Structure formats: structure tokens, C-alpha cells
Amino acid sequence: MDAPRPNPDTNQLHSPTALKNLSQTSFMLAFFTAFWTGFMVFWALHGEVFPGIVPIAVGAALVGFAVWLLVRSIKCARIVAAIVDEDPSGAGGAGKDSAAKKWDIVFTLQGCAIGVGAAVLAILGQYVYIVPVVLLIVGLHFIPIGMLYKTGIHYVVAGADFAAAAWGIITLLTTTPGGSFPMPAFVDSACALVGALSSAVLGVWIIRTIKQGAATTKVSS
């Protein structure tokens, strides 16, 4: 899951550069909302956790929301494209380079951790752990993003993802195989649902932030 590259400007979230990065991120969050939804529907149907109509209905609603988020992202991208950057040279100098390096480190580590973790679990045949482990990694990566941006929303999303992932992993480790209830499938579908909702919430926050930023930023006529 992605987030905008930090900007050293005083009002970093409303600066033209940050708004452009936020706009790009909203597209990715629309994709990840649908991505997590797909896993939720798959595991719910695979394990017959609920009557088929339930995960399908929830999945359809979330995919519909992802489409809405995509449409809003396109509109916001047009708004951001019209914003005049008052400091085209990019203020901040070395500070901006430092922030950019921190950004790159966070997402490089996240990508590597997800890739290695998923690959190891797949090799070991522990497929049911992939969803909660990936959700855990995604949740943890929001903490340094929140620190870079000084935003509370990233901590909230991180807490939700971490709590769901920790519950999922602990439940899978302590569940006795062969029970009448398909607990592994339930855990994976629940964790995937949290991932989808977290992406959707962060996407809405980004859309609102872009609107607020555009309202306080000079727009070309």
C-alpha cells in the first residue's frame, strides 16, 4: 500500500508537490481496495464461512466503492494538474532529499518484506498465513509514514491493520486443525476485509485532503 512522498514545505500536505503525490496515491488505494476485496471474497467462498450471497454482496459494494474512489481520483488529478506551484524549484534543498530517502527506504523495506514473507510462506505451504502477515507488514509501514507526515490517520490505519493481523496470526497458531468451523478461511477473509476498509478510509482521507489543499492553493485559470 502506498502513500505520498513527504514534502519539507511548512504546509506539506497542501503544497502543490504533496498534492500531486497524494493524487497518485489515491489511484493506488483504489486498486488496493479492490485487491484486498478479492482476497476477502475468495477465502469467504473457499471456506464457506458465510452463505455465498454475503461475501459476494460485500465484495460488490467494496468494488463499487473502489470504482467511485477511482473516479474521484481522476477528478482530483485534473484539479491538481491545474494548481500553480509557487515554488517550482522545490524549497528545502537537502531536507527534501533526506525526506525522499526516508520515503524510499520505508517502501523498499515494505516491498522486500512482503515479497520475502509471502514467498517463504508459500514454499512452506502455509498459504493461510500470507494474508495476515502481509496485512501486518502493511500496517507497520504506516507508522513511519505517520511520523514523516505528522498525520494521525496513518496511526489509526496502522493500529487497525496491526490489531487484525495479530489476531489473525495468533488465532491461526492456536486453532486445532480439523474443526467443524473453517477458522483459517474466516481469519483470512476477515483480515482481507480490514485491509480493504483501511485502503478505502485512507483513500477518502486523501480525496478530502486534496480538496482542502486545492481550496487554499492558487489554481491557474
What would you note in describing this structure?
The protein has one domain. Helices cover 75% and strands 0% of the residues. It is built from six helices and no strands. The protein is globular and about 60 Å long.
Keywords:
221 residues; mainly alpha; 6 helices; 75% helix; globular
In short:
The protein has six helices and no strands. It is mainly alpha-helical and 221 residues long.
Radius of gyration: 19 Å
Which structural category fits the helices and strands? mainly alpha
Topology as H/E string? Answer: HHHHHH
Report the uncertain regions. Answer: 6-10, 89-97
Averaging pLDDT over every residue, what do you get?
83
Portion of residues within helices: over 70%
Largest sheet: none
Set down the secondary structure blueprint.
Blueprint (H helix, E strand, L loop, with lengths): L15 H31 L6 H29 L12 H30 L6 H20 L2 H23 L8 H33 L6
Helix pairs in contact: 1-2, 1-6, 2-6, 3-4, 4-5, 4-6, 5-6
